[in-house]
Amino acid sequence: MKLAIVILNWNGKALLQQFLPSVIAHSKEATIYVADNASTDASVHFIKNTFPSVQLIENTENGGYAKGYNDALKHVEADIFCLLNNDVEVTKNWLQPVVKTFQENPNMAIIQPKLLDFNNKDAFEYAGAAGGFIDKYGYPYCRGRIFNTIENDFGQYNDTADIFWASGACLFIRSHVFNQLNGLDEAFFAHMEEIDLCWRAKNLGYSNGYVGASTIYHVGGATLSNANPKKTFLNFRNSLFALTKNANGHIFMLIFVRMLLDGVAGIKFLVELKPQHTLAIIKAHISYYQHLKLLLKNRKNTKNKIQYYQIPSIVMAYFVNKKTTYSSL
């Protein structure tokens, strides 16, 4: 299998300087690309002069994660694309188990490795941990992370498993599936577009997997931290986008309940003296309504809508029933 690792970068010279050497050292089987999203720092000059073996793709604008990868991957020929964040440290032999799993499972479209926290290497990392799922209302959670409760890694997820979504911090996808799906949805800009991508793959009958024999370390929030209201806006809005496009059942009742739950989250932010995050949720709902016509058109074009959730409400399980680990659900 021909493998291409594509690292999307925007003003991340310092991150490339820190993390790109590990990717080069441990990825001899792959061709490595940096796709630069019109950085205004010295990223492009740095890549050209420091890492001449790395292929550089220069996007003409900062279209976010979705458009950035869509534009870049038009210039890449490979059987497998690895979409890798620029704040990831990889480990020795991280690619072999993933490639082997693809070879042994021809229906598997997308794979995620084990994501551990770069700053606390005994713990899982928030963005994807050991593979993701969503509840009926579109709230994401992971094996190894539910809301802000993060498990330490004791080998409990050293398996290979079917998952619903793979983290965009490191997502392997067959190139023909990426093209069949017409890539990432650029309306998302950034955050949760990987969940939408994985969901659309599942709706087409493909499977998504987690390979615990492959380990990487992710900083997380290096481009946009959890404290930034813009991240709150994107997460809440894009979750509504993905639900409307892909969920089975009566969509308007589902969205109504989801928005009520978002309202509770907004009140919680107010109580925590974070009014800017409450405002971000309100703005997310307004933006959702502005995009609703297009979302319903996309929904109409999605013919196969699978059963997508294991439990009805991760909010109820976590906050009311106090189930804080995946194994307790």
Overall description:
It contains ten helices and 14 strands. The protein folds into two domains: 3-218, Spore Coat Polysaccharide Biosynthesis Protein SpsA, Chain A; 229-328, no CATH class. By secondary structure, it is an alpha/beta fold. The strands form three sheets. Strands 1, 2, 3, 4, 5, 6, 7, 12, 13 and 14 form a ten-stranded mixed beta sheet that branches. The model has no long low-confidence stretch (mean pLDDT 96).
List the helices and strands and how they pair.
Elements: E1 3-9, H1 13-25, E2 30-37, H2 43-50, E3 55-59, H3 64-73, E4 80-84, E5 88-90, H4 96-104, E6 108-117, E7 120-124, E8 132-134, E9 140-142, E10 145-146, E11 149-150, E12 160-163, E13 170-174, H5 175-180, H6 193-203, E14 207-218, H7 229-246, H8 251-271, H9 275-301, H10 314-320
Parallel strand pairs: 1-2, 1-4, 2-3, 6-14
Antiparallel strand pairs: 4-13, 5-14, 6-7, 6-13, 8-9, 10-11, 12-14
How far apart, in Å, are the first and last alpha carbons?
37 Å
Name the poorly predicted regions. none
Sheet with most strands: 10 strands, mixed
Count of helix runs? 10
Helix vs. strand class: alpha/beta
| Mean of all residue-level pLDDT scores | 96
Range of helix content: 25-40%
Shape call: globular
Number of strands: 14
What percentage of amino acids are in beta strands? 15-25%
Helices and strands, in order, run as EHEHEHEEHEEEEEEEEHHEHHHH
The named CATH superfamily of the largest domain? Spore Coat Polysaccharide Biosynthesis Protein SpsA, Chain A
CATH architecture of the largest domain: Alpha-Beta Complex
Query: Radius of gyration in whole Å, from Cα?
Result: 19 Å
Quickly count the domains.
2
CATH topology of the largest domain, which one?
Spore Coat Polysaccharide Biosynthesis Protein SpsA, Chain A
CATH class of the largest domain: Alpha Beta
